[in-house]
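[step 3/7] fold_predict: job queued, chain A
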Amino acid sequence: MEKRFNQGGSRFMIPAMRQEKILNILSNDEIVSVEDLMDVLNISISTIRRDLSKLEKESKIVLLHGGGVKLAQKPTELSITTKLDLNRDAKYLIAKKAVSLIQDGDVIFVDPSSTTYHMIPLLTDKNITVITNSISHINQLIHYGVPSIMVGGNIKSTTNSCIGPIAESTLKDLNFNKCFLGANGFTIQAGITNHDINEKVIKTLALQNSATPYFLIDSSKYGCITMVKIADLDTYPIITESVSEELKDYKNIILA
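[step 4/7] structure written:
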């Protein structure tokens, strides 16, 4: 493992932040030894064992014989084109509900999810500005004549989106009345999760800069845990088309 950075203050971090750094390290190296993690993060054996035990219980990592650690194999991330054809009816209902929450004059952010894509044809009678980091979405917004702003950056081909430092720098200076974000999974235990650490940064900036943020997640993703946690389940409003019995007491869940 190449020691690219020093996390000298990691021992004083809250566990959640330290564990996210561990996941970040593992995303760059296929297998890392426990000793290397201790060295890079400057933490004790007892601390790294607690962190790794928690991450293993959350199915985020795999502990190997001999002291190695690697990321748990994550579900394959589908392309935006493939996602658009999955659960279309549910996504349309969610998109329709989301659009009903938008007011004239709003500046909104939509991320590259397939559910937010279904919002676009429904926006034509709204006097709004849409900001997105999705190439697919911006083409659709242009097609429907919706005033829009494109956030550029490094291209991620599977989602047809822009991520990385240029996108992050741009989003830091933008404010939104509302944002509408997708996710790859949600559970009571793991919260709202996503495949990609870089996409988490984009979503987090959008959440921070939005007066009213929303997640748009169809019910087929309930019970799915992917690599990166974005938020606890009860932190932000979630629009979905149906809920199981165990979610009915969550006041932040909005039925489409």
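[step 5/7] annotate
Residues 15-71 form a domain with the Arc Repressor Mutant, subunit A fold (CATH 1.10.10.10).
The first strand starts at residue 32 and ends at 33.
exit 0
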